[in-house]
Design goal:
The chain has 33 helices and no strands. Helix 10 packs parallel to helix 12 and helix 17 runs antiparallel to helix 18. With 566 residues, it is mainly alpha-helical. Among the domains are: 148 residues, Serine Threonine Protein Phosphatase 5, Tetratricopeptide repeat (Alpha Horseshoe), CATH 1.25.40; 88 residues. One of its GO terms (biological process) is RNA modification. Keywords: Repeat. One of its GO terms (molecular function) is RNA binding. This is Pentacotripeptide-repeat region of PRORP domain-containing protein.
Length: 566
């Protein structure tokens, strides 16, 4: 073995001989786990040869420390060691991996000075390097000047454009490639072409290129197959996605997860679960995809069940930040404080520095489960990590749980600390005003949005103010506020006013609100007619109440739906 050979050279004092050590260093350098052994053996050579330096540059360019290849190249230049095309190919690849375009240009200059500018493989490496460094113009200039191009040349140019998100150029070069003689696209080409079409929303082109793949017998390798599963899964074309999945002879974890995600996104959890159960090896993406799929489909109980299966069953895979954030959202929706606390314990045990998304999800979960004290404890423990969402979650939670004064205090502190409030923050603080009944304060917050923070109010902010006024009995002000809006009010705002009229017995404004709603989609729901009819009935105006009920039947309005509490 190479280790025995290396040991023999050390015992015979030949470990500093560059010729003797060439085979040892080459063998070490070609194996990523042995790159440190190659580095050590190379460091003992007093006068490395071109072959030894090339072995090291090649190995380091493929390792986790490609920048070290640049140091070896620099030493070659300083010592005046001869450089050949092999050196240039692999040092160029190293420049691409570390995205050091300055060093790459120095290498390019050497390529030209040494007369390697017409070497096919050197040019391919330069195209690739400039593409990795987002300099697609240099890539294209080299590509256009090449007298000879092979498949790697075309793929390198296509990959350069793809890396720089020049997707229309990807398709243009592909069309040129198809017209060129003696060059046939392969799976690498088609991965980038399909991805470009997907980004550009060219669904018809994708279908045509799938036919092209079949007509030209392009091998469906795992990377092309995974790309097609993802693209067709996102388009909801599950049978096509499944067809590509079945065609992959050697599936990897990405293949299984892509198929699972496609089914979960479409809401087909029977087939998603079947794929999940058939997977030869489930990773954290597999578990998280099932959990997030259930959350997005508004099936939080199922999401929690999968999480508990993951953490209490035989699975050796632990949750990551995405998993934890998703299941905390499920706990918030269902009020499962017990599971939420279990998740919090998992966060404490497994994540040294939880990111802001996990912390925000914890605060939101505790607030929605009515545990404001726990939410405040999490909030206080995130002093250096708070973002506007963090502040919004806690302000909203305090408001909903009946503590508007602390919500106001935190909003003020947020401003003092220079944290810019978001649109949602103002919804939360106006909601706090709803719970405190402070209409003037709510209006002050609303006006400060644009005046002090440059935030244009959205319909949800107008709705929050109208709700605040109606609950406090300021119906005339609510009407004037809606009528004075700079944008067309959503019918839901008139429905809010109608509800306020029912609560406070204002028949005049109730009629005005109903007229505004008449003919709108909102009026074709139960709420508007029932509220108006109830207003008249409460005032003893039975004829008007009956008329509202008759109009309700005339429109054949269906009930809005049922609601239940567990």
């Amino acid at each position: 073995t190479v280790r025995e050979l290396h040991g023999h050279f050390i015992r015979t004092n030949r470990h500093k001989n560059p010729n003797a050590m060439s085979q040892v260093i080459e063998s070490y350098a070609r194996s990523p786990p042995s790159i440190d052994k190659a580095r050590f053996a190379f460091s003992e050579i007093e006068a490395p040869t071109l072959a030894l330096c090339n072995h090291m540059i090649r190995g380091l360019s493929r390792s986790d420390t490609p920048a070290d290849a640049l140091h070896v190249f620099d030493k070659m230049c300083v010592t005046g060691l001869r450089i050949d095309n092999i050196t240039l190919i692999f040092i160029t690849k190293a420049c691409g991996r570390v995205t050091d375009v300055s060093f790459g240009r120095r290498v390019h200059t050497r390529v030209l000075k040494l007369g390697f500018g017409s070497y096919l493989y050197v040019c391919n490496a330069l195209i690739h390097m400039y593409g990795c460094c987002a300099d697609f113009r240099s890539s294209r200039r080299i590509f256009d000047e090449m007298d000879e191009k092979d498949l790697v040349s075309w793929n390198s140019m296509i990959c350069a454009y793809s890396h720089c998100e020049r997707y229309e150029d990807v398709l243009a070069v592909f069309q040129m490639m198809r017209a060129a003689e003696n060059t046939k696209p392969d799976a690498v080409t088609m991965v980038k072409v399909i991805f470009a079409c997907s980004f550009l929303g060219e669904s018809e082109l994708i279908d045509r290129f799938v036919e092209y793949i079949d007509d030209n017998s392009i091998e469906m390798d795992v990377y092309l197959g995974n790309t097609l599963i993802d693209v067709f899964g996102n388009r909801g074309r599950l049978e096509m996605a499944r067809g590509f999945f079945d065609r992959i002879t050697e599936k990897n974890s990405v293949s299984w997860n892509a198929m699972l995600i496609a089914y979960a996104k479409s809401g087909d959890f029977v087939r998603a679960r079947k794929v999940f159960d058939e997977m030869p090896c489930r990773d954290v993406v597999s578990w998280t995809s099932m959990i997030t799929g259930f959350v997005q489909a508004n099936r939080p109980d199922d999401a929690i069940a999968v999480f508990l299966e993951m953490t209490t069953g035989s699975s050796e895979v632990g949750p990551d930040r995405v998993t934890l954030t998703a299941v905390l959202s499920a706990c918030a929706r269902t009020g499962r404080l017990d599971v939420g606390k279990t998740v919090h314990d998992t966060v404490r045990r497994t994540i040294a520095n939880p990111d802001v998304y996990v912390l925000n999800a914890l605060i939101d979960m505790y607030c929605k489960c009515g545990s404001v004290g726990e939410a405040m404890a999490v909030f206080r423990g995130t002093e250096a990590k708070k973002d506007p969402v963090t502040w919004t979650c806690i302000i909203s939670g305090l408001a909903v749980n009946g503590d508007p004064e602390n919500a106001f205090r935190l909003f003020s502190r947020m401003s003092l600390l220079g944290v810019k409030p978001a649109h949602g923050t103002f919804v939360a603080v106006i909601l706090a005003c709803v719970h405190s009944g402070d209409v003037d304060r709510g209006l002050a917050f609303f006006r400060s949005m644009e005046k002090d923070h440059g935030l244009v109010p959205e319909m949800k902010h107008y709705g929050a103010v109208v709700d605040l006024m109606c609950r406090a009995g300021y119906l005339e002000r609510a009407h004037d506020f809606i009528a004075g809006m700079p944008v067309d009010p959503d019918p839901a705002l008139w429905t809010m006013l109608l509800g306020g009229c029912r609560l406070h017995g204002d028949l005049v404004l109730s009629g005005i609100a109903m007229e505004k709603l008449r003919g709108s989609e909102e009026s074709k729901r139960v709420s508007g007619y029932v509220l108006s009819s109830n207003s008249y009935a409460s005032a003893g105006k039975w004829d008007d109440a009956t008329r509202m009920r008759e109009e309700f039947r005339e429109f054949e309005i269906k009930p809005s739906g049922w609601s239940c509490l567990q």
